[in-house]
């Protein structure tokens, strides 16, 4: 039987009052907000959560068979869980949370054995069973505590098995709605839109009337305020161990965490305790910190993306700045190939970017086209993308070629890029919208729906489907129509040719990609919305590609 | 879904419209009640599948026409589950192993093993059906030319191992990509595309059956546009009927959307050779890919359209570049890079040619 | 046996039973006979083009050696069969350790067919296995290309080169089969035609003959044989080779693909034609041959047959 965590109310108060002085606790827990007023989340969002509770829990009992479901989505550290807990505490609502069996039992010897074996070893079926058990029992039988208070079920960890079989998850939700006796709140840490889309496709949201509240990254102004509050409180609590951080440090912490409050607090703690000295020295050395320097400082502290942002790396390669002087002169007949040395070592740039080779190549390819000065240069550059892909795919047991592929691409590109004359580049980078996995899914659908008419996708797509679409036989099923609508009309396509721009500090989540083990990535990434607040305003003039 | 293609598909070897000698061969082949492994190859829409089904009917009776869709699940060594849909009757099973990508080997091995194990049941079931008793089931594997090397070797092994309980019919467009070990173990049946006049004949036959008045000019035009793909020709006929009936002789033959799109793309490339245009073309290529048009088909079609409008003096170079990039595309993992590479190269070569031509003119 | 005698592949049915039956590999046979007499056998390495009797020879030899015990004493492995050396090692181990050896011959024989398709690593590992069981087991490696066998293995075996069989030997053998099977395809001209199609490969010739026999019960024509072999009519290849206009040739290539012919067959036949062509300049011939190699390589990698062949077309046109 699941371990049901005690009400958040208790946990929250206990952790704040009894253990507050415990050094072992991280700042995240120690300085967790205790009231609505202290939450750094935008007021509107909190009101939204509150009003949902008011509608579904406080004011009236919901109809039988219609247990309400709330979905909170947002990036890490945007205050989803905290808001929920604070609001619940406020309204005297009792939270029961489902924990993954691995999390629960990790304290026992058996648990650690599992962990060594990797999560996959835990029998998946039993996770699902466990999950279902909990979700129903938890909602139907009152626990021993807090008999009077209102209850909600909280689900923060969605078993990974459901990602692969979202239908099962949807079925579970349906059953919950039919039999559940109290509201269900699901928190989805949203780094990739694909997960939300998979688990909660619009039709499910509609069917089950799932209310969605999406949290944005915390605005810088609010972040500032929250951090200052914590500093004040921390200086009271910690005493001698505490070094008051300099303003520039606070500033850089705020800048580098991209609206992730948890990260910000962690960075702050790291800077204020122990490690602070080093940083202070660093700051002193350059008392008149220019904009560029403060940026360097930011990356020094351990920002979200430890080194270079994708945006900058792309710039470094695509602008491929060169020194002024030619060092190695070439003989006359090779003058054509003479170039001054590049300012950047491409391999270094790539390594500091910390993204996969695949993603980096695709981003380069997608954006290089804006940098081609002439068709000649375009064809030379495109040649190297093709060659790089070839090298990348060449099987080589020693693994030497793996690292070479990206070098081939980058160096070939940098060598052949010619500045477009009189054309200034507008300074944005875009991510490709084509999604290989989506196409693969579609291909599968096509074969499923039209299996009777042919077993090869090529044959179906090249003639059977286009003509079936025109002939419109009366007995096509809905599924078949769906497929036809999606893949026949190339000319009137609905594919979004407008590409999504990436901004300076966007970070890409490649998790999905790694898990699936495919070579194509896009589905896994989501561009973070630009955080509100003036500091995030993106201006191209500020970016220095040198 | 009763399209003309399905409605007028000949069901018996005697009723096949063309390659009649081959049909009589096939009849002789199954006359003894047995069947060797077959490798049936030929271009798309030439009638490979029709011939196979007619042969099977000759062998097993009309039971082979009662088809059902089944979902089969196989487990790899790493406990990964692979699902694949098959089309089967009591006597045969059809599957496209390349559906499952690199797991194709597992599918082939497991599928044949399953059939070998359950084969006894099939035999008794068939024996009740008085005269026809067969000790084997037929497995049709489509697109074998797209199987991985690994899977092909596995296939070759299983062919010998389960010869007792099943016969294989392998279907592909070209035998070049089938390993010799498999080729030498199968009886090759080449199914060439029907000629234009054969296609016209079939179109007329269908029109007559449907009591349609089909002008011969239109029939000719359809046969021309279908480029030897009979399935496409019949689909075109039906699409024309839906669009406009009674027919007129100068009616347009409807081409699939993707073909028109590629033709337009080729025109765009000819019209302008600039980086900006390259960007647009690239978007168009993405469009095609996301509509499932196979990259190889895009490449072939695009090249043919471009060649139509290219000066003879650079044609050789263009084809050579196309062959280079297309080959790389098969080795690499990102088709768009190679398609774009080729388009960029084409633009560069075309530009150079125009400059030279202009210089000569001066 | 469920399978009726008539369904037995002729290749198996007419495989030589004794070393003496082996067609026309006199050198090899005489050496092997000596081995038989002395009762000792080195490790063997048979190499030569396909269908020249390598497998037949070792099987016949083993039969001569063991008589009825043949099944227990011989292990036949296709190197490409069971992937990975570990499987081979395991099998060889189990096999070598089977019950104590009785009879006059102390050792067993392991036949590794298609040894050249083994990876280098597998071959290296095989060398160890060979050394380990050398007391009880003899290995016979069979391959097409001796250069693909690593030197350490190479040096441990006695090598036997199998020459392509002379046409008259093949004709006699095929004629014998035709008589026994009552095949109506007799004249030595017809048989020579068949052998030419099979490129001197006995197995291929016999297989073709059997397939043709199955299909046309009455009389086999050359046309039938051609069709089954997937051979392209000479005039088609000729037209391709002599076409002077690129546009027409690219179109011809399109039609060629639509005819369902296989691209590599065209390359094979073109190769013969180019080599036999006395009018062509050497430099152009070289260019053509190089292109043939490239095109074949690409097609084997999965490249589009149409585009590859059109690429070839451009080279052909420029060689006129």
UniProtKB/TrEMBL annotation, chain A:
One GO CC term on file: nucleus
Keywords: ATP-binding, Cell cycle, DNA damage, Nucleotide-binding, Nucleus
Domain AAA+ ATPase: 66-224
Transmembrane segments: none
GO biological process: DNA damage checkpoint signaling; DNA repair; mitotic DNA replication checkpoint signaling
One matching Pfam family: Rad17
Subcellular location: Nucleus
Primary localization: nucleus
Gene3D superfamilies according to UniProt: P-loop containing nucleotide triphosphate hydrolases (3.40.50.300)
GO molecular function per UniProt: ATP binding; chromatin binding; DNA clamp loader activity
Family membership noted in the UniProt record: Belongs to the rad17/RAD24 family.
PANTHER family: CELL CYCLE CHECKPOINT PROTEIN RAD17
Name used for this protein in its record: Cell cycle checkpoint protein RAD17
Primary gene name: LOC100901201
UniProtKB/TrEMBL annotation, chain B:
Gene Ontology BP annotations: DNA repair; DNA strand elongation involved in DNA replication
Entry keyword set: DNA replication, Nucleus
A cellular-component GO term for this protein: DNA replication factor C complex
Domain AAA+ ATPase residues, every copy: 34-197
Family annotation (InterPro entries): AAA+_ATPase, DNA_pol3_clamp-load_cplx_C, DNA_Rep/Repair_Clamp_Loader, P-loop_NTPase
GO molecular function: DNA binding; DNA clamp loader activity
Annotated Pfam families: DNA_pol3_delta2, RCF1-5-like_lid, RFC_C
Cellular localisation: Nucleus
Family per similarity comment: Belongs to the activator 1 small subunits family.
Task of the protein: Subunit of the replication factor C (RFC) complex which acts during elongation of primed DNA templates by DNA polymerases delta and epsilon, and is necessary for ATP-dependent loading of proliferating cell nuclear antigen (PCNA) onto primed DNA.
Oligomeric and partner information: Subunit of the RFC complex, an heteropentameric complex consisting of a large subunit RFC1 and four small subunits RFC2, RFC3, RFC4 and RFC5; the RFC complex interacts with PCNA. Forms an heterotetrameric complex with RFC2, RFC4 and RFC5; this complex has ATPase activity but is not stimulated by PCNA. The heterotetramer of subunits RFC2, RFC3, RFC4 and RFC5 interacts with RAD17. Interacts with CNTD1; this interaction facilitates crossover formation.
Name listed for the protein in its UniProt record: Replication factor C subunit 3
Gene source species: Galendromus occidentalis
Source organism phylogeny: Eukaryota, Metazoa, Ecdysozoa, Arthropoda, Chelicerata
Gene, per the UniProt record: LOC100901447
UniProtKB/TrEMBL annotation, chain C:
InterPro entries hit by this protein: AAA+_ATPase, ATPase_AAA_core, DNA_pol3_clamp-load_cplx_C, DNA_Rep/Repair_Clamp_Loader, P-loop_NTPase, Rep_factorC_C, RFC_lid
AAA+ ATPase domain residues: 40-166
Single annotated GO MF: DNA clamp loader activity
Cellular component terms per the entry's GO annotation: DNA replication factor C complex; nucleus
An example Gene Ontology biological process: DNA repair
Keywords: ATP-binding, DNA replication, Nucleotide-binding
Family: Belongs to the activator 1 small subunits family.
Name of the protein: Replication factor C subunit 4
Upper lineage: Eukaryota, Metazoa, Ecdysozoa, Arthropoda, Chelicerata
Gene of this entry: LOC100904538
């Amino acid at each position: 039987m699941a371990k049901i965590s005690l009400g958040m109310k208790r946990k929250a108060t206990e952790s704040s009052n009894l253990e507050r002085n415990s050094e072992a606790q991280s700042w995240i827990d120690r300085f967790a907000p205790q009231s609505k007023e202290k939450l750094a989340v935008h007021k509107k969002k909190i009101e939204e959560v509150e009003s949902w509770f008011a509608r579904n829990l406080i004011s009236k009992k919901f109809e039988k068979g219609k247990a309400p479901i709330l979905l909170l989505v947002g990036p890490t550290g945007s205050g989803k869980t905290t808001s929920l807990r604070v609001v619940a505490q406020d309204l005297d609502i009792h939270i029961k949370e489902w924990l993954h069996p691995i999390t629960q039992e990790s304290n026992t010897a058996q648990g650690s054995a599992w962990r060594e074996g990797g999560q996959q070893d835990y029998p998946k079926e039993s996770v699902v069973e466990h999950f279902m058990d909990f979700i129903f029992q938890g909602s139907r039988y009152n626990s021993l505590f807090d008999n009077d208070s209102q209850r909600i079920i909280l689900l923060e960890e969605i078993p990974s098995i459901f990602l692969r079989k979202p239908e099962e998850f949807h079925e579970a939700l349906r059953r919950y709605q039919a039999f559940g006796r109290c509201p269900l709140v699901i928190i989805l840490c949203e780094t990739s839109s694909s997960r939300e889309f998979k688990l909660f496709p619009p039709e499910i949201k509609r069917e089950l009337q799932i209310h969605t509240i999406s949290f944005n990254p915390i605005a810088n102004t609010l972040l500032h305020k929250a951090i200052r509050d914590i500093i004040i409180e921390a200086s009271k609590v910690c005493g001698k161990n505490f070094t008051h951080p300099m303003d520039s440090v606070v500033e850089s912490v705020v800048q580098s965490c991209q609206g992730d409050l948890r990260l910000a607090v962690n960075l702050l703690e790291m800077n204020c305790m122990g490690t602070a000295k080093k940083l202070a020295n660093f700051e002193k050395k350059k008392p008149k910190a220019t904009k560029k320097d403060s940026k360097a400082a930011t990356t020094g502290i351990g920002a979200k993306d430890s080194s270079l942002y994708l945006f900058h790396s792309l710039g470094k390669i695509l602008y491929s700045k060169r020194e002024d002087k030619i060092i190695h002169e070439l003989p006359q007949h090779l003058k054509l190939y003479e170039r001054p040395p590049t300012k950047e070592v491409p391999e270094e740039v790539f390594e500091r970017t910390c993204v996969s080779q695949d993603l980096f190549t695709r981003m380069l390819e997608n954006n290089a086209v804006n940098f081609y000065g002439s068709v000649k240069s375009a064809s030379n550059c495109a040649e190297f993308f093709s060659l790089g892909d070839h090298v990348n795919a060449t099987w080589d047991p020693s693994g030497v070629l793996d690292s070479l592929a990206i070098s081939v691409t980058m160096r070939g590109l940098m060598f052949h890029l010619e500045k477009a004359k009189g054309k200034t580049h507008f300074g944005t980078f875009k991510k490709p919208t084509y999604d290989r996995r989506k196409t693969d899914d579609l291909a599968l659908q096509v074969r499923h729906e039209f299996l009777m008419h042919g077993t090869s996708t090529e044959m179906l797509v090249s003639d059977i489907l286009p003509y079936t679409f025109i002939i419109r036989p009366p007995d096509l099923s809905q599924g078949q129509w769906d497929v036809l609508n999606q893949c026949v009309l190339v000319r009137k396509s609905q594919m979004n040719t407008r590409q999504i721009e990436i901004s300076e500090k966007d970070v890409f989540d490649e998790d999905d990609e790694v898990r699936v083990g495919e070579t194509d990535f896009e589905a896994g990434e989501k561009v973070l919305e630009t955080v509100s607040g003036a500091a995030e305003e993106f201006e191209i003039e500020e970016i220095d590609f040198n | 879904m009763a399209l003309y293609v399905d409605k007028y598909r000949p069901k018996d070897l005697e009723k096949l419209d063309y390659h009649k000698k081959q049909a009589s061969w096939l009849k002789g082949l199954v006359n003894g009640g047995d069947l060797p492994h077959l490798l049936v190859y030929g271009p798309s829409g030439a009638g490979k599948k029709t011939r196979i089904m007619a042969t099977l009917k000759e062998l097993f009776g009309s039971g082979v026409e009662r088809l059902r869709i089944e979902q089969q699940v196989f487990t790899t060594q790493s406990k990964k589950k692979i699902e694949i849909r098959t089309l089967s009757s009591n006597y045969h099973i059809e599957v496209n192993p390349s559906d499952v990508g690199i797991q194709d080997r597992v599918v082939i091995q497991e599928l044949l093993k399953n059939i070998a194990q359950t084969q006894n049941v099939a035999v008794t079931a068939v024996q009740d059906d008085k005269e026809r008793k067969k000790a084997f089931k037929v497995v049709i594997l489509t697109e074998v030319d797209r199987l991985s090397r690994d899977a092909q070797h596995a296939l070759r092994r299983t062919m010998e191992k389960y010869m007792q309980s099943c016969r294989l019919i392998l279907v592909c467009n070209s035998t070049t990509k089938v390993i010799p070990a498999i080729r030498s173990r199968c009886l090759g049946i080449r199914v060439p595309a029907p000629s234009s006049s054969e296609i016209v004949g079939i179109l007329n036959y269908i029109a007559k059956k449907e009591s349609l008045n089909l002008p011969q000019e239109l029939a000719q035009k359809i046969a021309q546009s279908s480029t030897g793909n009979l399935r496409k020709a019949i689909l075109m006929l039906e699409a024309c009927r839906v669009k406009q009936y009674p027919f007129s002789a100068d009616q347009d033959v409807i081409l699939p959307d993707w073909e028109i799109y590629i033709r337009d793309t080729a025109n765009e490339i000819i019209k302008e050779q600039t980086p900006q245009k390259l960007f647009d073309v690239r978007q168009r290529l993405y469009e095609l890919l996301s509509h499932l048009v196979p990259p190889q088909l895009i490449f072939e079609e695009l090249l043919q359209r471009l060649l139509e409008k290219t000066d003879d003096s650079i044609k050789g170079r263009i084809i050579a570049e196309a062959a280079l990039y297309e080959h790389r595309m098969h080795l690499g993992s990102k088709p768009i890079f190679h398609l774009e590479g080729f388009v960029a190269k084409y633009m560069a070569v075309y530009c150079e040619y125009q400059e030279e031509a202009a210089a000569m003119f001066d | 046996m469920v399978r009726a005698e008539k369904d037995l592949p002729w290749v198996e049915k007419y495989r030589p039973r004794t070393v003496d039956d082996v067609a026309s590999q006199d050198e090899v046979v005489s050496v092997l006979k000596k081995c038989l007499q002395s009762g000792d056998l080195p490790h063997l390495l048979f190499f030569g083009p396909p269908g020249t009797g390598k497998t037949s020879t070792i099987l016949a030899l083993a039969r001569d050696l063991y008589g009825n015990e043949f099944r227990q004493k011989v292990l036949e492995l296709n190197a490409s069969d069971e992937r990975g050396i570990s499987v081979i090692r395991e099998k060889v181990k189990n096999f070598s350790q089977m019950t104590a050896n009785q009879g006059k011959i102390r050792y067993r024989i392991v036949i590794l067919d298609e040894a050249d398709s083994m990876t280098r690593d597998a071959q290296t590992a095989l060398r160890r296995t060979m050394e380990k069981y050398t007391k009880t087991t003899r290995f016979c490696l069979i391959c097409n290309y001796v250069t693909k066998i690593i030197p350490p293995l190479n040096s441990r075996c006695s090598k036997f080169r199998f020459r392509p069989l002379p046409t008259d030997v093949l004709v006699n053998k095929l004629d014998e089969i035709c008589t026994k099977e009552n095949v109506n395809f007799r004249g030595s001209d017809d048989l020579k035609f068949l052998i030419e199609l099979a490129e001197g490969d006995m197995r291929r010739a016999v297989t073709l003959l059997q397939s043709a026999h199955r299909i046309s019960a009455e009389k086999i024509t050359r046309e039938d044989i051609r069709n089954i072999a997937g051979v392209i009519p000479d005039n088609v290849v000729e037209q391709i080779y002599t076409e002077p206009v690129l546009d027409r040739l690219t179109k011809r290539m399109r039609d060629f693909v639509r005819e369902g012919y296989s691209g590599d067959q065209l390359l094979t036949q073109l190769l013969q034609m180019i080599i036999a062509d006395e009018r062509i300049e050497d430099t152009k011939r070289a260019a053509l041959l190089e292109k043939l190699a490239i095109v074949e390589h690409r097609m084997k990698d999965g490249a589009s047959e149409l585009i590859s062949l059109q690429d070839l077309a451009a080279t052909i046109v420029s060689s006129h």
